[in-house]
Design a protein that fits this description.
0% strand, globular
Length: 261
């Protein structure tokens, strides 16, 4: 299984290299757009360097998670268009495992690009280096796994309806707003606490900000119940995603539309 995942990472990396012009163009867009957004925020509300770091960390997590979110639906749509979806679903690896590995591989590949983009933006904005720790890495992994659960659910829908780009777009837009990726939502109080459970990135972004910018430690987050809550949320999204994916796969197989587009 590990060798298969390594092969999927290589495939994802090769695909990224093949479409490198598109990748570079997207990165160039954010290199220009994000500092401009920070300038607007600063002119309107006096955005301090700390708040800029909060926005940048949230944006980078969102950028990484979007690759994992879109991966399964895009793969299913593309394979259906090429007429190869049915043969892939007949592979010795269970479909849900295969597409989970593909989503995780997309996240690994995107993590390199997001890290490069993050370094560039930190230098442009002249922000101090954030505090990196094992706790921050674990939070990031849990957050991405939760998003992979949502991606599985989208994949289940894609197996039936094939085109799901609009769903991914809507979820991506809502997530950047409701997760507080650009502007922290702490002032919302109880509503913000509810969003932590309902939006897979919200809790992770909040914890990462506390670990990388604030003085919070992994032990302090444990006392606040962050580790337990984030782990339960991740497991819930993965379970829900697996349920929807298997439902979509079984329904498409019974209806005989796995290979149709």
């Amino acid at each position: 299984m590990f060798n298969r995942w390594v092969a999927e990472i290589r495939r994802s990396g090769s695909e990224t290299y093949t479409y490198r012009f598109n990748v570079i163009s997207t990165m160039a867009l954010w290199v220009v757009a994000f500092p401009m957004m920070m300038m607007v925020f600063d002119s309107v509300a006096g955005y301090s360097p700390v708040r800029q770091m909060e926005s940048l960390i949230g944006f980078l997590v969102w950028d990484l998670c979007m690759a994992a979110l879109a991966a399964i639906g895009q793969d299913i749509t593309r394979e259906a268009q090429h007429g190869t979806l049915e043969s892939i679903l007949m592979a010795p690896v269970a479909p849900i495992r295969l597409f989970t590995m593909r989503s995780a591989s997309a996240a690994v590949t995107q993590s390199v690009l997001t890290a490069i983009l993050g370094v560039i933006l930190f230098l442009i904005l002249r922000l101090p280096a954030p505090h990196l720790s094992l706790g921050a890495l674990i939070v990031l992994v849990l957050t991405v796994l939760g998003v992979i659960g949502v991606s599985l659910a989208i994949g289940g829908i894609a197996l039936i309806y094939k085109r799901v780009a609009s769903i991914v777009g809507v979820i991506g837009l809502l997530s950047v707003l409701l997760s507080g990726a650009l502007v922290p939502l702490y002032s919302l109080g109880p509503l913000y606490e509810a969003l932590k459970w309902l939006v897979p990135m919200t809790w992770g972004i909040s914890a990462l900000r506390a670990l990388m910018i604030g003085d919070a430690s992994a032990l302090e987050l444990a006392r606040q119940g962050v580790w337990l809550g984030l782990t339960l949320q991740t497991l819930a999204f993965l379970a829900l995603g697996a349920l929807v994916f298997n439902w979509g796969y079984n329904r498409a197989r019974v209806a005989g539309i796995l290979g149709s587009y």
